[in-house]
User: Which sequence fits this backbone?
């Protein structure tokens, strides 16, 4: 099997090394890493990027998004993505480990921000022309601080990231019609559920298993997923399986039957039926169409 490349922050060139943070202007970043940004890969960190110029596409977990001035993208660890540009891009990029943010804001979590809250929320935001320059200046401030060697550098970067995320959240909620949650308990349970599914979806496909892990009934867990995402617990489990199967079909040399086995399906025919029901085509047809 040829695995999807998983990049970490230490692989990126840095003038002022910080082991859990990186920032750059986009032109320099893409030039330094031109050998792989156009190839599917994933990260073990959170990534945020703003485009002030340029056009093209950004594929994130098999969903394609347009790149244009004002595009902002948010990636969580583990997501597969690549960029393809039609015209030269400009902007700024930064990424960081979860601890980099949360150690400085002990009472806050990255998942409080809607773009990191759930896999189901769009990983992109399109700013209007009057706000592009304002938000880009915040990314530039982060980059400029990253290039300094002043006292309390990491603390200031963390503060700048926090205020940038807050401003982006205000625009995100205004533009993206994100459903407002009425119960903080529901939000916390959904976060825990998604983490459990990520860790166990290959072996555990029963909603009852996840409900038991969360110490609630299956009926109540379905009530939570319906209220927050409009889907059942089983829907979320199946969607995670389908996403992983797509990643393996496109980015590995595994046979379709071995992929089925890796995902916990000993009967390939059954797996194929599940895949076709959700995707609208067989695994083989999907793989051929994507290639």
Assistant:
């Amino acid at each position: 099997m040829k695995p999807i490349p998983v990049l970490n922050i230490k692989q990126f060139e840095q003038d002022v090394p910080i082991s859990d943070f990186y920032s750059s202007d986009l032109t320099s970043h893409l030039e330094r890493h031109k050998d792989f940004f156009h190839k599917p890969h994933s990260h073990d960190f959170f990534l945020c990027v703003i485009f002030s110029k340029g056009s093209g596409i950004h594929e994130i977990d098999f969903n394609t998004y347009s790149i244009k001035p004002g595009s902002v993208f948010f990636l969580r660890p583990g997501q597969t993505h690549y960029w393809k540009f039609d015209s030269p891009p400009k902007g700024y990029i930064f990424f960081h480990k979860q601890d980099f943010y949360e150690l400085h804001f002990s009472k806050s979590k990255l998942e409080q921000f809607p773009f990191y809250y759930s896999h189901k929320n769009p990983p992109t935001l399109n700013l209007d022309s009057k706000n592009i320059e304002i938000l880009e200046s915040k990314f530039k401030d982060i980059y400029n601080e990253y290039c300094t060697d002043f006292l309390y550098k990491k603390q200031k970067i963390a503060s700048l990231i926090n205020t940038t995320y807050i401003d982006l959240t205000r625009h995100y909620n205004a533009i993206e019609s994100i459903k407002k949650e009425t119960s903080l308990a529901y939000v916390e349970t959904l976060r825990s559920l998604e983490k459990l599914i990520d860790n166990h979806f290959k072996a555990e496909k029963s909603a009852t298993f996840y409900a038991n892990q969360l110490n609630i009934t299956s009926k109540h867990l379905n009530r939570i997923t319906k209220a927050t995402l409009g889907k059942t617990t089983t829907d979320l489990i199946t969607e995670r399986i389908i996403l992983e199967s797509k990643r393996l079909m496109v980015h590995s040399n595994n046979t379709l039957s071995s992929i089925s086995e890796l995902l916990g399906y000993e009967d390939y025919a059954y797996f194929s039926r599940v895949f076709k029901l959700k995707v609208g085509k067989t695994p083989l047809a999907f793989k051929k169409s994507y290639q």
Summary: The chain has a mean pLDDT of 88. Residues 6-175 form a domain with the Jelly Rolls fold (CATH 2.60.120.280). The chain has twelve helices and eight strands.
